[in-house]
Amino acid sequence: MNYSNIQKQDPVLYEIIKEEEKRQKQGLELIASENYVSEAVLEAMGSILTNKYSEGYPGKRYYGGNEIIDKAETLAIDRAKELFGAEHVNVQPLSGGPANIAVYFALLQPGDKVLGLSLDQGGHLTHGHPMNFSGKLFNIIPYTVNKETEEVDMDEVERIALAEKPKMIIAGFSAYSRTLDWKRFKEIADKIGAYTFADIAHISGLIAGKQLDSPVPYFDVVSTTTHKTLRGPRGAIIMCKEQFASAIDKAVFPGVQGGPHDHINAAKAIAFAEALKPEYQTYTKQIIINAKRLAAKLSEKGYRIVSGGTDNHLMLVDVFGSKGVTGKEAEKVLEQVGISVNKNMVPYDQRKPMDPSGIRLGTPALTTRGMQEVEMDVVADLIDRAIANRNDQAKLDEVKQAVIDFSLKFPVPGIA
Ligand SMILES: *Cc1c(COP(=O)(O)O)cnc(C)c1O
């Protein structure tokens, strides 16, 4: 990407893009929800497919001139079906939030009871936060992780489900480092006739890469973003059993959205094709190997990893509990040296969301840059040096230079 037209036409914005390129290239990206897309995905997002309006679905549009767009959308649908083994796929959701709104509206009425993992224990905003549509319109019953193991306790989920009889059970998370027992969720839901909804936004790439079990065979509906481990454009898809196909499609359009973003859906098709390749399985396997290695190295240095480790791409580090540094302070000092992470609540956190006890670290982006186990050892060292020297500016300057020198050895797709 050389942005020569932007350079000519809008030098101010050009400089902003160049600055961000430099930040991405010279820094270490450990935000668990981020990744670097391929140049082919970037090209599709920048393509003339953005010019079209195509409300409706392939073969049933409300606008003329969609015979070619239909081919692109159908390609994305077919590839997603193959990748996840889904009966039905809607590729139009603009992002994970809108996808989840459509799922609620397809299956429920406002006021209905929904069981979801508590946000302060790893769940997502759209699983019932009071400020989110989900918490405002639905009666959310949270489940939590076990205080000792810090893992979801399925007997507890079953106990709450049988007592509360929710109409839908959500399984999914944004900040949880273990796997979920999809089959058990389905068995519990069947006992009370509840719908099952899996939100695999974070781990869909690991599932597509055949590294983690999939909820698709068991669950009524599964949503995922396409831009996290899946490494596609910003967006989402909804997968479901055939019996829910029409309800889901109607909920997405006209229920929640107008015209789909055809350039983004084409980029999704490209990302799905990339994820169908054997190299993608190697990539996703390495993401997990790297996360386990990073967690082990940080543990050796005295950091407490929530639940004792990770089975996926992310970990929660209790920096306050183990080092007396708050999540906010840790995020800030790491940002100063060019390492991006986010502050995060740990289970049963005594601190507040804006300055919690933990940080969340993930390996998908660094793994895309080609980093492996030995590099994770270097990353753990850099993180520890920054946190340990947080009050010593000269030392932090040294760490910052070390981060730049190290990062520049690993190319970012799309950045020269
Ligand atoms: C990221 C995420 C979403 C929302 O995605 P956006 O594209 O940011 O709206 C939904 N659910 C879960 C579990 C997520 O992690």
Description:
- The chain is an alpha/beta fold and about 425 residues long.
- The protein folds into two domains: about 15-30 and about 280-405, Alpha-Beta Complex (Aspartate Aminotransferase, domain 1), CATH 3.90.1150; about 45-275, Aspartate Aminotransferase, domain 2 (3-Layer(aba) Sandwich), CATH 3.40.640.10.
- The protein is built from 17 helices and 15 strands.
- The protein has helices at about 5-10, 10-25, 40-45, 65-85, 95-105, 135, 155-165, 180-190, 205-210, 245-255, 260-275, 280-300, 320-325, 325-335, 365-370, 375-390, 395-405, and strands at about 30, 55, 60, 90, 115, 140-145, 170, 195-200, 220-225, 235-240, 305, 315-320, 340, 340-345, 360.
- A seven-stranded mixed sheet has the order 4-10-9-8-7-5-6, sandwiched between helices. The protein has a four-stranded antiparallel sheet with strand order 11-12-15-14.
- α5 (about 95-105) crosses α10 (about 245-255) and α12 packs parallel to α16 (about 375-390).
- It is globular and about 65 Å long.
- Bound molecules: pyridoxal-5'-phosphate.
- Pyridoxal-5'-phosphate (PLP) binds near residues 96, 100 and 126.
- Pyridoxal-5'-phosphate binds near residues 96 and 202.
Distinctive features:
seven-stranded mixed beta sheet, binds pyridoxal-5'-phosphate, single chain, four-stranded antiparallel beta sheet, alpha/beta, Aspartate Aminotransferase, domain 1, 416 residues, 13% strand, Aspartate Aminotransferase, domain 2, 2 domains
The number of domains:
2
Note the overall shape: globular
CATH topology of the largest domain: Aspartate Aminotransferase, domain 2
The averaged pLDDT comes out at 97
Counting H and I runs of at least 4 residues, what is the number of helices? 17
Sheet with most strands: strand arrangement:
4-10-9-8-7-5-6
pLDDT < 50 stretches: none
